[in-house]
Amino acid sequence: MVRLMLVEDDRTMRETVAAYLTRAGHEVISVGDGAEAVTRFAESPVDLVLLDLMLPGMSGLEVTRRLRAVQRDLPLIMVTARAQEHERVQGLLAGADDYITKPYSLRELDLRIRSLLRRITAAGPEHPDTLVDGDLRVEVAAGRALQDGEPLSLTGREFDLLVWFLQHPAVIHSREDLIREVWRWNVGDPSTVTVHVRRLREKIEVDPSRPTRLATVFGKGYRWDPSGSTEAGS
Asked: Which of 26, 34, 99, 159 is within CB 3.0–4.6 Å of 78 for a Cys-Cys bond?
């Protein structure tokens, strides 16, 4: 059973969503504001946080930063009533793995939760459990990535994205490909991929503005060039 925290200040919505997710088989801890969410999480961590962006007092962005400081790989879905791209990007840059815009389908929400929690746990002959590229080492089943022997602070979705690129080097992947293969969505906003690629570059590239590993192939998508061999632009 997945244990998740629902942070929503609207009481009616909070109770409705909590009831649905409970019936779907999740254990739900419901809180009404950001400060309570931070306190409750410190007392009793959860598997995933479903967090409203617009909260009284402490904002959803600040809650995200504080929870990430406690657990860097905590799966977190941001909920927003705003449809503008810059609001979604704000949440993703703050550390959210995914977002969903109100009003949303409760069925879709449950699918998003299950998708986010899915991690690569088994190794096969094509994709070994340990992936190595120069100074990068990724231990897939353990969910651990290291660079020069030092742990990388990656969110769950950033880790999944890095694993995918290492498993499929020297191939151009469109944003739609990555939405389908990494996010496991049939449809999705391509800007989600753009933000996660940007965040991943900030953690693995010496100069994220001039990447030597995770290259942009303009008009087509992204390509992983092993051992920093790319000469493509950012």
From this structure: 99
Could you tell me if 138 and 162 are in contact, meaning their C-beta atoms sit under 8 angstroms apart?
Answer: yes
93 Cβ neighbours under 8 A, 6+ residues apart: 195, 199
CA–CA separation, 65 and 45 (whole Å) = 15
Contacting residues for 132 by C-beta, under 8 A, at least 6 apart: 138
Class of domain 130-228 (CATH, top level): mainly alpha
Rounded to whole angstroms, the Cα distance separating 104 from 113 reads 13
Judge whether 30 and 11 are in contact, CB under 8 Å: no
Query: Which residues are bridge partners to 129 per DSSP?
Result: none
143: left (phi over 0), alpha (psi -120 to 50) or beta: left
Q: Please list the ranges in the chain whose pLDDT falls under 50.
A: 119-125, 228-234
Domain boundaries, the chain: 3-117, 130-228
Which residue in 199, 9, 2, 182 sits closest to 102, CA to CA?
A: 9
Instruction: Note the pLDDT of residue 122.
Output: 35
Q: How far apart are CA 113 and CA 115, in angstroms?
A: 5
Interatomic CA distance for residues 118 and 58, integer angstroms = 29
Place of tokens 């570059």: 201
Question: Is cis: bond before 128, omega within 30 of 0?
Answer: no
Q: Measured between alpha carbons, how far is 161 from 62 in angstroms, rounded to an integer?
A: 25
pLDDT at 37: 95
Distances (CA, A) of 168 to 90, 134, 151, 205: 29, 16, 22, 18
CATH topology of domain 3-117: Rossmann fold (3.40.50)
